[in-house]
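In response to the reviewer comment on reproducibility (Comment 2.3), we provide here a single inverse folding case reported in full, input and output, so that an independent group could reproduce the run without further information from us. The C-alpha cells appear first.
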C-alpha cells in the first residue's frame, strides 16, 4: 500500500491535540507514534533532496574547472606528464569513491564520487585520444563514456549520474542505421535502472516521484529511434502514460509523484493539434514499421491495453484506438491517402477527447478536468480559425465568444459543484 507521508505528518501533529481532548489516551497515542514515526523517517526530506542536487551541481562545476585548468596549460607540458595528468582526475575520484564506499558515507558523498568518477573517465578518454591522435567521432566518444559511467550509477546508487546518463543519450549524435540496436541497449539499461529504483522506493516518496519524471527522457528518446515511425511510437507511449497515470491517480498518488496524466494530456493535445492542421505531419513511412519501431511501440501499446481492460473508460479506449488506427492506416494506405485520413482523424479525436474530458469533469464535479476538456476544444477551434479563410473581424468575434463561453461555464459550474458538495456533506 502506498505511503502517504503528508497524512502521516498530519496524524503525528494531531496526536497531542487528540490526547488533550480525551479522544485518545497516552498509551494509544504512543503506539500510533511508534508505528508511524519510523515510516516518516524513510521519506527523504526536501532538505536532503536539495542537498543532493547542490552537491551534484558542485561536483560538475569542480570537474569542469579541472578540465579548463588542464586545457589552458596543456601545450606547455611534456608528453609523459600529459599522460599522468590525463589519469589524475580519475585516480583522485577513484580514491574518493573507495573511501565513500568503505566508510558507508551518505548520499551527498555518493553523488559526488559517482559524478567526479564519470568526469574523470571522460577527461582521461578525451586527453589520451588527443595525445595519441586517435581517430574517432563525438558519437563514439559519448558511447564509450556512457558505457563506462553506467556501472558507477549502480555502484554508488547515484540518481544525479542516472539523470546525466539519460540526458547524455540525447547528446550522442549519429547513432546510425548500421548499429541501431546499440541505442536500444543503452536505453534498456537506463530505463531498467529507473524502474528498479522505483520498485525499491516507497511509492509516495519524493524519490519515486523523481524517477517517474525522469522516465520522460527515455520515452522521448525512444520515439526518436523509430525514425520514420516516430509518430506511432510517440502516441503509443502517450496512450500508456495516460492509462497508467489514471490508475495511479485512482490509487491516491498525487501529481508530484504522478506526472503521466499531465504529460500525456499535454502531448496528446499538442501533437493532435499539429496533426489536425497539416497532413505532412503524418507522412511517416508508408511501408510496415521496421523491427526497431515494433520493439518500441508494441510493448507500450500492449501494456496500455492490459491496464485499460482492468477498467474500461471511453477516454482509455480513445487513446489506445488512435495508435492502432495509425498502424492500420500506415500499412494499408498510400502516403497521400494516409496523410489526409489521419488529418481528419486527428480533428475527430481531438474533439472527442475534449468532449469526454468535459463530460467527466461535469459528472465528477471536477473543475480541473472540465477545463482540460475546454482547453482541447478551444485549441481545436483556434486551429480551424487559422486554417479557414475567415476575416480578422470574424476571428476577433469568434475569440471573444470562446472566451465568454469559457468564463461563463467556469463561473456557472463552480457554483453548481460547490452546491453539490455542500449537499453531499449534509
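Designed residues, in position order:
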Amino acid at each position: 500500500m502506498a505511503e502517504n507521508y503528508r497524512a502521516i505528518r498530519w496524524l503525528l501533529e494531531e496526536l497531542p491535540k487528540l490526547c488533550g481532548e480525551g479522544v485518545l489516551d497516552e498509551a494509544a497515542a504512543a503506539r500510533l507514534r511508534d508505528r508511524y514515526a519510523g515510516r516518516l523517517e524513510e521519506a527523504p526530506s526536501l532538505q536532503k533532496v536539495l542537498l543532493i542536487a547542490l552537491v551534484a551541481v558542485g561536483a560538475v562545476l569542480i570537474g569542469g574547472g579541472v578540465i579548463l585548468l588542464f586545457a589552458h596549460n596543456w601545450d606547455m607540458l611534456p608528453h609523459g606528464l600529459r599522460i599522468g595528468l590525463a589519469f589524475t582526475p580519475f585516480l583522485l575520484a577513484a580514491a574518493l569513491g573507495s573511501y565513500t564506499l568503505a566508510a558507508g558515507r551518505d548520499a551527498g558523498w555518493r553523488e559526488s564520487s559517482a559524478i567526479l568518477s564519470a568526469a574523470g573517465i571522460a577527461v582521461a578518454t578525451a586527453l589520451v585520444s588527443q595525445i595519441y591522435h586517435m581517430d574517432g567521432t563525438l558519437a563514439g566518444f559519448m558511447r564509450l563514456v556512457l558505457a563506462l559511467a553506467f556501472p558507477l550509477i549502480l555502484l554508488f546508487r547515484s540518481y544525479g549520474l542516472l539523470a546525466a546518463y539519460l540526458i547524455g543519450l540525447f547528446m550522442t549524435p549519429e547513432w546510425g542505421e548500421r548499429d541501431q540496436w546499440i541505442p536500444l541497449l543503452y536505453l534498456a539499461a537506463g530505463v531498467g535502472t529507473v524502474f528498479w529504483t522505483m520498485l525499491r522506493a516507497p511509492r509516495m516518496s519524493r524519490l519515486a516521484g523523481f524517477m517517474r519524471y525522469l522516465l520522460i527522457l527515455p520515452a522521448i528518446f525512444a520515439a526518436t529511434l523509430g525514425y520514420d515511425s516516430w509518430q506511432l511510437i510517440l502516441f503509443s507511449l502517450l496512450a500508456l502514460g495516460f492509462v497508467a497515470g489514471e490508475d495511479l491517480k485512482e490509487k491516491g498518488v498525487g501529481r508530484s509523484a504522478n506526472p503521466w496524466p499531465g504529460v500525456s494530456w499535454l502531448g496528446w493535445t499538442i501533437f493532435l493539434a499539429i496533426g489536425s492542421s497539416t497532413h505532412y505531419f503524418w507522412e511517416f513511412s508508408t511501408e510496415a514499421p521496421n523491427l526497431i519501431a515494433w520493439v518500441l511501440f508494441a510493448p507500450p501499446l500492449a501494456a496500455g491495453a492490459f491496464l485499460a481492460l482492468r477498467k474500461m473508460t471511453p477516454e482509455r479506449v480513445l487513446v489506445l484506438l488512435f495508435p492502432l488506427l495509425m498502424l492500420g492506416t500506415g500499412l494499408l494506405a498510400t502516403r497521400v491517402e494516409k496523410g489526409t485520413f489521419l488529418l481528419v482523424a486527428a480533428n475527430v479525436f481531438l474533439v472527442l477527447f475534449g468532449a469526454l474530458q468535459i463530460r467527466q469533469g461535469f459528472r465528477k464535479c471536477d473543475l480541473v478536468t472540465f477545463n482540460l476538456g475546454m482547453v482541447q476544444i478551444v485549441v481545436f477551434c483556434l486551429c480551424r480559425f487559422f486554417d479557414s479563410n475567415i476575416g480578422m473581424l470574424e476571428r476577433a468575434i469568434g475569440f471573444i465568444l470562446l472566451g465568454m463561453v469559457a468564463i461563463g461555464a467556469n463561473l456557472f459550474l463552480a457554483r453548481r459543484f460547490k452546491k453539490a458538495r455542500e449537499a453531499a456533506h449534509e
